[in-house]
Amino acid sequence: MRNFADKLIEEVSRKNSALVVGLDPDLEYFPDYLLEDVDLSSDESIADAIFEFNRIIIDAVADEVIAVKPQLAYYEVYGSFGIQALERTIAYARSKDLIVINDAKRGDIGSTSAAYARAYLGKGTMAGDMVTVNPFLGSDGYMPFIQAARDNNKGLFLLLKTSNPSSHELQDLQLANGKVLYDMLAEEIEKLAGDSAGVHGYSYIGAVVGGTYPEEAAKLRRALPHSIFLVPGFGIQGGRAEDLSEFFDDKGNGAVISSSRGIIYAYRNQRSDWSRIVESELIRYVREEASTAKEQINAVRFHKATR
């Protein structure tokens, strides 16, 4: 069976893009025209607006990105109607030949993780191609995802060194052997990834490494030669394009860079009257920002930084 990492790397090459766009729909940032007929007391009505927004974003960025990454919290908050919006979004993204990464950050005891794995890496309408997984409950929490990814020819990203400012409070804890926690986890990931590499040298078992931590990324790139990095934090969270070379290997592979708010709400930085824009303007601003981000990433991913 084909390793999903091979598909991911081949899509990066085919589209000359390592960009992933996060789909984090927040009504507060929607233009007025999308909310004109929305009943804000109705989850069903809101969910319809969310899907419509996502459809527009997907159409705008489809030529510039390899994947979309729905952040599930923005859908779950609207209950079953929000989940339906997620399912419709996944189906629409696939109709545009985009990879779907469900940003779920799931992880639990073994039996529960197995159920989560079926939900997000199985055959159902909520399943994507990849999922983010919280590994901090231990191996019985993440191994069911690895098995499901292997069985269904899909992939996953294990949280390792995340982009949020407080990640150091736990992830950087020094252990009795002198190593920090994320280093020890990286060693465990490499044991699994090294045994499941595809023809391009990478495994379907990836890792989340925040774009706000380039020095840590350089060390982790060496420690995890077989894991593709999902790199959040580029843009609004403070990750800089010039630091992204640390996440890639010498061939420009090994990482996909995620940007959410900086792209899907690009119009908010372009117009003081952004709430009054029309659909054609929304599409133009979003497409231009995605194209710029793609080119910024391409400008550095083939050139390793020296430190």
Automatic annotation (TrEMBL):
Coiled coil: none annotated. GO terms for molecular function: orotidine-5'-phosphate decarboxylase activity. Residues 18-277 form the Orotidine 5'-phosphate decarboxylase domain. The keyword Lyase applies. It comes from the Bacteria. Pathway: Pyrimidine metabolism; UMP biosynthesis via de novo pathway; UMP from orotate: step 2/2. Its EC number is 4.1.1.23. Gene3D superfamilies: Aldolase class I (3.20.20.70). InterPro entries: Aldolase_TIM (IPR013785), OMPdecase_type-2 (IPR011995), OMPdeCOase_dom (IPR001754), RibuloseP-bd_barrel (IPR011060). Pfam families: OMPdecase. It catalyses: orotidine 5'-phosphate + H(+) = UMP + CO2. The keyword Transcription regulation does not apply. SMART domains: OMPdecase (SM00934). Keywords: Decarboxylase, Lyase, Pyrimidine biosynthesis. The active site is at 105 (proton donor). Belongs to the OMP decarboxylase family. Type 2 subfamily. This is Orotidine 5'-phosphate decarboxylase. It comes from Paenibacillus spongiae.
